[in-house]
Write a structure and sequence with these properties.
Elements lengths: L2 H8 L6 H11 L6 E2 L1 H12 L8 H15 L7 E2 H5 L6 H4 L11 H8 L6 E2 L1 H16 L5 H15 L7 E2 H4 L22 H11 L2
Helix pairs in contact: 2-9, 8-9
Length: 207
């Protein structure tokens, strides 16, 4: 993606889901779900180009420190995808996905509801059903089918770190904070969870 194209997107007043994917992928070169160091500097420099006021290196470092202090909600010294999303003028219905203040009570219950085939992951159709329910609850009105298709495809594209076309629990957790996340309590020796693992989890928690 050319620098000019990214700069054009950063000054748009209303970014679509696909626009956000383009911007995010331009900076998250390693695909690890956050930007820091040189990636963060590049993002901030491009972000500041919306202002016509030139900045010196010293001013940039001061702005960066203030910017990160404000935007870095979990204070880990880097900006994750949720934190960057809140900085950009995304479509309101898409931005809602990154504004989850209350964590899920249980990732087990979440997967029971949306993982229809019990394979331990969510494909695009299953993500779509989650988005349908979430938007209905958050916005008190249904989202158009075309937007549901667009957003579910975007979510899978953004969070599918191993590029298998679906979201494992650990990938979904980057979008949805969970109070009772079983990944921290039950070890499988792998981040890819199969149906047998899911049954093991349900047995562990449904006592």
């Amino acid at each position: 993606m050319s620098a000019n194209k990214v700069n054009e997107l950063l000054v748009k007043s209303n970014l679509t889901a696909q626009d956000f994917i383009t911007v995010w992928n331009n900076y998250d070169k390693e695909g690890n779900g956050f930007i820091k160091d040189e990636q963060l500097d590049a993002f901030l420099q491009d972000f500041l180009k919306k202002s016509s006021t030139p900045t010196s290196d010293q001013q940039f470092q001061q702005i960066k420190a203030s910017f990160v202090n404000s935007a870095d909600e979990n204070k880990d010294g880097k900006l994750d995808i949720n934190e960057v999303a809140k900085l950009l003028p995304l479509e309101e219905s898409f931005l809602m996905l990154f504004r989850r203040n209350a964590p899920l009570n249980s990732s087990v219950q979440f997967m029971k509801k949306y993982d229809k085939n019990g394979d331990g992951s969510l494909d695009t159709k299953e993500v779509k059903e989650f988005l349908r329910d979430y938007h209905k609850q958050a916005a008190k009105e249904p989202l158009q089918e075309a937007k549901l298709n667009e957003y579910s495809a975007a979510v899978v594209q953004l969070f599918d770190s191993n590029k298998d076309g679906k979201l494992q629990i650990h990938e979904m957790a980057k979008l949805l904070p969970v109070e009772n996340n079983f990944l921290g309590k039950v070890s499988f020796g792998s981040t890819d969870i199969n149906k047998k693992d899911i049954e093991k989890l349900f047995k562990f928690y449904d006592k």
